[in-house]
Amino acid sequence: MKISLAFVVIVAVLILSVMDTVEAGFSAALQIGITKKIPAADCKRKAKKGDKLEIHYTGTLTDGTVFDSSISRGKPFSFTLGAGQVIKGWDQGILGMCIGEQRKLTIPPELGYGSRAIGKIPAQSTLIFTTELIGIEGYTPEVESEPVIETPPETIESIVAKNTADEAENAVTKSAEASKESLASEVPTVDLEAETATAEEPAKDEL
Prior knowledge:
Strands 1, 2, 3, 4, 5 and 6 form a six-stranded antiparallel sheet that branches. The model is unreliable at 18-27 (pLDDT under 50). 35% of the residues lie in helices and 19% in strands. The chain has helices at 5-27, 70-73, 88-93, 156-186, 192-200, and strands at residues 31-36, 52-61, 66-69, 77-80, 102-107, 127-136. By secondary structure, it is α+β, with helices and mostly antiparallel strands.
């Protein structure tokens, strides 16, 4: 049976097309690694579509070259999730993050910049981002307040006891002061001038 050249060409094109589709399907897989997890009890709010977020990030190529970082600028990046303001890898990879959570996103070209070359990023580059969700606009995390220790109200008995103790302390203080004054009054006073004059006066027998 003879097979026409046209048929062979068609089959070859179909095979190549299928292979390209399968390869694209594998390469378009977004990889999400959680490098810092927030306990469920502390994560009261997760990032969802339509949220305006603040993210700190560092972007590198697969060879480790840093092409951008909000940390070096000292200011988090702000964008609306799911609004197409960032690459698809971000819209998918940031979804569901908790405040304080950190993720490592490995983004294939299909979910990054594709065939475009952007600055230090060559065309068809796989991008690696380390990210941290800093805040969600309009949401303030609940801060647990310190427990208030209530002081029991004073009773009549406690007031009387306190007053009695104060009176006793005052009485002891007054008694000590009175003792000091009494001791001071009992010390004899010596007239130094009189004694000096007496000592200097010559005896009658010596005259």
